[in-house]
Amino acid sequence: MSVPSVSKPFLWWCAVMTVIILLCVMAYRTGSAWYHNHQLRKDFPAAAAASPYQQGIPLEQMDLSTYRSYFPGNMAEPAYSLTHRIEAPVSLQYYTEIPTDETAAALEIPKGTMIEAIPEETQGSSFYELGYGYTSYPTYEQGWRYVRPFKTAEAASPGLGEEYYFIKIDSLEAVLDAAIRANKPFRAAVRQQHWTLERGTHTFARYIDDVLYQNGAYLSPDLFYRTFDRWNMLLLGAVVVITVVLLRPSSWFPRLRR
User: Are 136 and 172 in contact (CB under 8 A)?
Assistant: First the structure.
């Protein structure tokens, strides 16, 4: 059913206003990310004694126990039961170094494998164990983490011991998201902070980064916001599509002809 020509000027102006609104939203998101990143750098309380991170020591050579004093933990047992084991929501690929395009994974836990997402016995809070699972250490490259793999039914195998590997933070966030969904206390904690599940997952995945920042030990690249993220790409795509339609020949809008 064709749209009456008398309404086409109105639709044209609606499209123009939509483009303006989308551009404003993009500008706001980009500006907010830039401001957040600027404040991170400005307010970073660098410690007087340079930490191993600040000295640029490779993660493989770093004594991670240096940071344990930052995490006193809670030695009391939790007053609620937790779902410790869940199915891996994605394939988890671990590397001995941050890979190039040709680097093969040193260890892979296939999607659907039952993993111990939340350690049943930890030194401190049962929610985390430093350097295990999704409670990972930041690296010097955004998006890559340094951590011990999740335990599986084959946890006794040499590949699933105390050795650290590199893994993408997106994979760990997928597991963390599933762990939060499987545990009511964690969902309640997210709601108490008035966060979305996505925001809670993002924050919990960077738990160690936040503590290192507060102690002046390291300004992790994973604390920075992307100034042009996936949502901005979608908004830009919508602007391009609408603009192309607006620039079509004037036969689309016969009432606007002179």
Answer: yes
* Per-residue tokens: 83: 């779902």
pLDDT of residue 158: 46
Strand-pair category, 92-94 with 144-147: unpaired
Which pTM value belongs to this model?
0.80
User: Distance between CA 152 and CA 114 in Å, rounded?
Assistant: 6
Torsion, Cα 202 177 184 123, to 10 degrees, reads -70
- Whether residue 138 contacts residue 209, with contact meaning beta carbons closer than 8 Å, is answered with yes
Q: At CB < 8 A and 24+ separation, what contacts does 31-36 make?
A: 32/225, 33/225, 33/226, 33/227, 33/229, 34/227, 36/224, 36/225
Spatial separation of the C-alpha atoms in residues 136 and 150, rounded to whole Å: 11
**DSSP calls for 229-251:** -HHHHHHHHHHHHHHHHHTS-GG
Give the span between the Cα atoms of 248 and 219, in whole angstroms. 49
Give the Cα separation of 39 and 112 in Å (integer). 40
Neighbours of 1 (CB within 10 A): 3
CB within 8 A of 147, min separation 6: which ones? Answer: 131, 132, 133, 134, 135, 136, 137, 164, 165, 167, 172
Residues 141, 70 contacting (CB under 8 angstroms): no
pLDDT at 35: 85
Residue 189 contacts residue 207 (beta carbons within 8 Å): no
pLDDT higher than threshold 80 for residue 129:
yes
